[in-house]
Amino acid sequence: MPSGTILLADDDAAIRTVLNQALGRVGYDVRATSNAATLWRWVAQGDGDLIITDVVMPDENAFDLIPRIKRARPEIPIIVMSAQNTLKTAITAAERGAYEYLPKPFDLNELIRVVDRAMTAPRESAVPRHSVQDEEKMPLIGRSPAMQDIYRVLARLMQTDLTVMISGESGTGKELVARALHEYGKRRNGPFVAINMAAIPRELIESELFGHEKGAFTGASQRATGRFEQAEGGTLFLDEIGDMPMEAQTRLLRVLQQGEYTTVGGRTPIKTDVRIVAATNRDLRQLINLGLFREDLFFRLNVVPIRLPPLRERAEDIPDLVRHFLDQGEAEGLPPKTIDSEGMELLKRYRWPGNVRELENLVRRLAALYTEEMIGASVLETELAEPDFSRPTEQAPSDEPLSASVERALNRLFAQHGDALPPPGLYDRILREVEKPLFGMTLAATRGNQIKAAHLLGINRNTLRKKLKDLDVQVIRGLK
Q1: How confident is the model over 37-50, as pLDDT tens digits?
Q2: pTM
Q3: Per-residue confidence band for 476, with pLDDT thresholds at 50, 70 and 90
Q4: Which of 3, 81, 99, 172 is the most exposed place for a label (fewest CB within 10 A)?
Q5: The architecture CATH gives domain 426-471
Q6: Any idea where the domains of the chain sit in the sequence?
């Protein structure tokens, strides 16, 4: 049975009682207090094997006390609890040297597991890290359990250079997560460089990533630096990585394996020191099965996977997000607005196909176009009339023609951008979206037999070969 003394500091008597009983039942001796001064006296006397503390106490904030504790007792693990369930709290707890951060309310069994792990783990000296700057400007908003899990993962990653793969639907805030990893991590003093694979013509992606030499191709009148060189010492964010052409995937894999690259048209290897954060709204494993994404590259990028939940899975965060966007709009000169309780409930029931981006666009539109200071449900019903928010899910009829499916997909695409428009090159991107699975699945159906695939598609073999090359469709023969 576990044993040891736990020092518990929390201003809430009920929480102290519950934790005392729960930890006592599994064999720990608990000494509880309601203030930081008593906790510090116990620590200074050398008492206790582990500390569990709330952030806010009557006499001192725990984040101010923890560095003193770490200087006096660097080996003692500290578990921080807080009802201020924000990314700021999670990052600050990690930066101050806390062993773990638990948002209130928490599961008692989870707390006991964390305590057991901390009490049995090897004790290492911990040095508090640098304090968080501009804490009020954290990019991620939300206190839902789904976001708490993300905050805790991000807090653990801040002082590492591990490669991260962020997945999630369009509009969920993947670039915000990438920026948070950069701006509050060890590379914060370096550049943050983002590149969207879906917005760059395929023939220019390698030049964009790695740069090119003068005369490397038609139009290359002078040497140009690539995103890897621009991001040196910082973070390179590869957005929509699933749209990267196969030849660029091969070169990226080589960079990740060898830590160096060559420019297009160049011969001298260039060492690189960047942190890679990738993002996608597509199922990369499905693309791997279709031969459209390299499996070895996937495993190189997917070191730490983070899934961002769609807004419909964290509807309890909508009030906080709405207030944030209204405050943001007011700071930029838009009139002050509020949304009544009935309207807020309506927003929480809506499906949000465009996720947080769609919500932000709606809030800004409400602030700019409506004269009333209090926005009610009737206004929101009008704004959300298309698509129909009353449907729990958008399901296509089983006999729906392909053109109708494409039209629905385009409706969602334009809705995600609100009042703005998608990036240029929409025609080629849409055709490519349709052609890739068409050619990939046809080859899969014919087991890689290109003669049968060309016949099935109604095109000649030369056209098929050209399309396979242009679309980077990998041909795997003899599939069972």
Answers
A1: 999 999 999 999 99
A2: 0.66
A3: low
A4: 3
A5: Orthogonal Bundle (1.10)
A6: 5-137, 150-307, 311-383, 426-471
